[in-house]
Specification:
The structure is a single chain. By secondary structure, this protein is α+β, with helices and mostly antiparallel strands. It contains nine helices and four strands, in the order ααβαβββαααααα. The chain has a four-stranded mixed β-sheet with strand order 1-2-4-3. Helix 5 crosses helix 8.
Length: 262
């Protein structure tokens, strides 16, 4: 790629810019896909559960929830303390997987463990991971596009003769700024809103799978108390992938209060 860019810059600045753009898009897309697939070797601190004897409660919960959700059972992993999440889901096709922290598998009541697993299985049933990867890829592509437009602006000034180069450079510079702002909006507003929506939807689908809203709500309140995440602000925030636990518990209570207090 470097050689082609060097040769292209001698022919025309736009040739170098196009090669850079295509190469960067391919690399960004590959990184996104590999990250989303979440191959077990890339998930450090995840120990595979290969049979029921290794973690019978987790094994039974995953298989029961998968049957109820109508999806093939995903691969199962137990996470250690080095993994900074209580539970998670990742992968596509035969690499679909869920992981749960070891202390949760060993320490929480079976109905809470079922609620945790149902939420993660719900993500696979909804197939929201593919859309999340698409949004993250869009953000990366916009960043690359803004960078390339900036390069076009500089190369145009250096490589093109005549007064036209000033206009082209100005247009490319303005376009770079607009695309960069667009990437910021996707990252700070669009993606958080989408991720929040997916988490609330997974809560709802998980409760349909288990038929037990009280356990889902109880576990979220426990997480809030144990972690100190006592915020009740429902608004999506940049950098957050999940609504605060109390917000999720409150929505479950609002949507299922007749069942809970029956």
């Amino acid at each position: 790629v470097v050689a082609i860019v060097a040769l292209g810059s001698l022919l025309h600045p736009l040739v170098a810019a196009v090669v850079l753009f295509v190469g960067a898009v391919v690399v960004a897309s590959h990184i996104m896909v590999v990250s989303a697939l979440g191959h077990p070797l890339t998930v450090r601190g995840a120990e595979p559960v290969l049979d029921r004897e290794a973690a019978s409660a987790l094994w039974d919960a995953v298989h029961e929830c998968a049957v109820r959700a109508g999806v093939p059972p995903p691969k199962i992993f137990v996470l250690d303390d080095s993994v900074k999440m209580l539970a998670g889901s990742w992968g596509f096709g035969s690499e679909r997987a869920i992981g749960v922290q070891k202390w949760l598998v060993r320490g929480v009541p079976p109905n809470w463990l079922m609620a945790i697993v149902a939420h993660e299985v719900a993500h696979h049933a909804m197939r929201d991971l593919a859309l999340t990867v698409a949004y993250l890829s869009l953000r990366s592509w916009l960043r690359v596009a803004a960078w390339i437009l900036g390069i076009i602006s500089l190369l145009t000034v250096v490589g093109l003769p005549g007064p036209a180069k000033t206009l082209i450079a100005l247009v490319a510079c303005i376009a770079s700024g607009i695309v960069h702002v667009g990437a910021d909006l996707v990252e700070s507003h669009w993606i958080p809103h989408v991720r929040y929506g997916y988490e609330h939807a997974a809560d709802a689908v998980g409760i349909v799978i288990t038929g037990d809203p009280l356990s889902a709500m109880g576990f979220l309140i426990f997480v809030a108390a144990a972690s100190g995440q006592m915020s009740r602000d429902p608004r999506p925030r940049p950098g957050r992938t999940h609504p605060p636990p109390l917000v999720r518990a409150g929505r479950i209570l609002r949507d299922h209060k007749d069942t809970i207090f029956r």
